[in-house]
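Exercise 3.2. Students should predict the tertiary structure of the chain below and write it as structure tokens, then compare their answer with the key that follows.

Predict this chain's 3D structure.
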Amino acid sequence: MPLDPFVIQIPQDRLDVLDERLRSAEWADEPPEDVGWLYGVPGTDLREIVDHWRRAYDWRSHEALMNRWPHVRGVIDGVTVHALHERGSGPSPVPLVLTHGWPWTFWDFAKVIEPLAHPERFGGDPADSFDVIVPSLPGSIFSSPAGSGIGWQQTAGLWVKVMAKLGYPRFGAHGGDSGAFVTAQLAHAFPDSLIGAHLTFPALLSHPLGSESRNDFAADEVDLFDGRRPMEEGMTHFMVHTIEPQTLAWALQDSPTGLAAWMLHRRRAWSDCDGEVQRRFSLDELITSFALYWLTGTVGGSLRFYAESFRLPWAPIHDRKPTLQAPTGMAVFPRELAHVPRRIAEEHANLVHWTRMSSGGHFAAAEEPELLVEDLRAFFRPLR
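Answer key:
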């Protein structure tokens, strides 16, 4: 089936239901004393977001911004796939698929789409332009619903078919979080289809994350080990999403306030914000990511993607070394959830590009779009 033009248009009655749910939110009891974020999201922060969501946030204006770019949607192998597709303006744009994670959405790439597709508008070289393709992960937002058996490994094969339908037999790929695993699987399983793979999360597939010791890191990178976040910051959601995603889905889809709390905690904990989440994301940016999941009714699908991705161990499809066969680049942001030494990355990937960033966390494209754009340009220049 073809990928047809698609326009984002949430029905007004859906927005009316959302407003009523926010207006009638049932607030949980809290500790009598101010303990900040000791037990999770405090009421002061959550009430500020919900109040802004109800009184100041305008979904239609953000919907119009998304519709500034062309979108496509269709069914491939029984999976509904949505993607933003902006053609570059340079002489020979490289097709580049950008894959998000959770609680990201495709719109977390909003700030990099135009600079990548049209560098000349930002003082750049048109020769660095890309055709930018930003899909929604299966089960998420407008790529819904997804049946069982669709995780990041299967998504890589799905992306190859999506790109072929868009006219790209070979393409570049970039991803963070779950999107990094999709991108790494592309580099492993489909190297002949890939111009290059660029990662902001060290999804090396054949290397177990967290198995590194301090001695594995070189002297000029040991700060990456010393600055690691507490394990619970990256694992509390992972355990629930993997073991019983549907149980949580009922609560989050029923309550947009609860959904906002669950996702807000991850935005704060995983970004380079020093505990002040609005240093990295405006209230409107936060709410747009929450609204995209709630309005499309895809909270459950986005959580089940974890279960389908991580319940079973990754299995290689070949024994060639390195595991990631396609040319690979890694942008290392200091407040990412996990880091590996460059030496280990070189063992498991065809590493041709490695950049240490000065700032930024897990949501690289949204936190440091200029740094990411320049690194993508630099990585792909010799591969064009």
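Discussion points: Residues 38 and 234 are 16 Å apart (CA to CA). The longest strand covers residues 324-332.
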